[in-house]
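Record pair follows.
FIRST:
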Amino acid sequence: MLKLLAIIIFLVALISGASWAIDLADGLAALIRITLAVGFILICGLGLVCLVAYFQGPSKD
């Protein structure tokens, strides 16, 4: 997953360096920002659920 992300970042940097693809790079950058924001929210949500489950687990015993 990390390797794929590094490849995507490299490709975006390569595309953004080309003057003919500035619009495409802006679109990809916006898409990547949205994807990262959604991923961050999902990870935080999952972490919160795990934290709640962890603290509720011992109390049931």
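SECOND:
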Amino acid sequence: MSSSARSTRRAVRGVIGRLRALGYHDGEATTIDDDEVVRALAWFKRDAGLPATAGPESDDVRRALVARHGS
């Protein structure tokens, strides 16, 4: 696995963790492709005023999560 792929996986795990901490995701799913995580991310993006097309690896999503949850 390339370093960029590892970096992306780590960032996505961070997104899922922050979604859990903020109460958007409380299930067992641990990958961004799981339906419950997709729904949680969509809910968060809608609440944060982000475009529906913003992916979990986007800087806008990460900045919004950090702003609401902290580092």
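COMMENT: The two ends are 26 Å apart (CA to CA).
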